[in-house]
Amino acid sequence: MSPEQSVPAYLPNVIPVNYSCWHEYALLDVGNYQKLERFGKQLLVRSEPKAWGLPSFATEEWTKADAVCNADGRWHFGKDVRREWVLTYKNLNFQVRCTDMSKHIGIFPEQVSHWTWITSQLEQTSLDLSKKRGIHKPCRVLSLFGYTGAASLVAAANGAVVTHIDASKPAISWAKINQQLSGLSSFPIRFMVDDAHKFIKREFRRGAHYDALILDPPSFGRGPKGEVWKAEKNLIPLLENCRQILSESPRFVLLTMYALEASALMMGNLLAAMMAGIDGSIEIGELALQPENGSNPLPMAIFARWVSST
Predict the structure, then answer these.
(1) Which of 66, 102, 183, 252 could crosslink 81 through cysteines, CB 3.0-4.6 Å?
(2) Which pLDDT score, from 0 to 100, does residue 296 have?
(3) What is this structure's pTM?
(4) Could you tell me the end-to-end alpha-carbon distance of the chain, in angstroms, rounded to an integer?
């Protein structure tokens, strides 16, 4: 086999977040393992292990932040600073919070690129089904490790029937708040507190099938009953079981990870093995945040996306 033949068809692609479609967020500066961000009108400084190098702004600009979260997860707030507020993305609303002992506020801005991609895939799915059958059949989407529900709400708002799984009860409650804030209370979204792997196995025994999968697994985590999740041990068997609950004509699979020790090529290889024998194409790459001052993009997550070619 020649070297050219051994190279997979998918090559890494860096996708910086497109601010033009979401004016509620901006990455202002990065450096010293921190990032200076604007969420709505609030300026936040949060720790970021991938923010190597020195910041571009002077220290005075960073001190204008309304709240700072250090590497230990402790927040320090200015006077009269809100700890909860709502951000709008197109027709959706997301509650964000500065919670104790966590730098995460309920939304990951770099995922905007995925939200746009999910929307386009569902629009194309609807068009394809209409051409083939003359009727509209909702795409059944399973979102695993769904957190506060952004991707699930994007899918539901674009006509999908969604099942949203997360091991954290507070995360599920937060997702339901976002559903209400977005005016999607009557939309077909099933929220469940469950261990992802156990849920998949039960769905297989029930004969359930899904047309699309969205997975955002952590490197390490625990299920609702203390089940230990380690990506290097559990991700491959999870993907193998996910293959068993795909419908006869799956539309797309989206896999995202924030692990420092993994790579986009690794994700692509896993997805290629999972979808072997089904016609489709794979794209891999990194999600990044582009600072407003024109500095180099800040890498945030790696991903692999499979799309049906039929």
Answers:
(1) 66
(2) 86
(3) 0.93
(4) 29
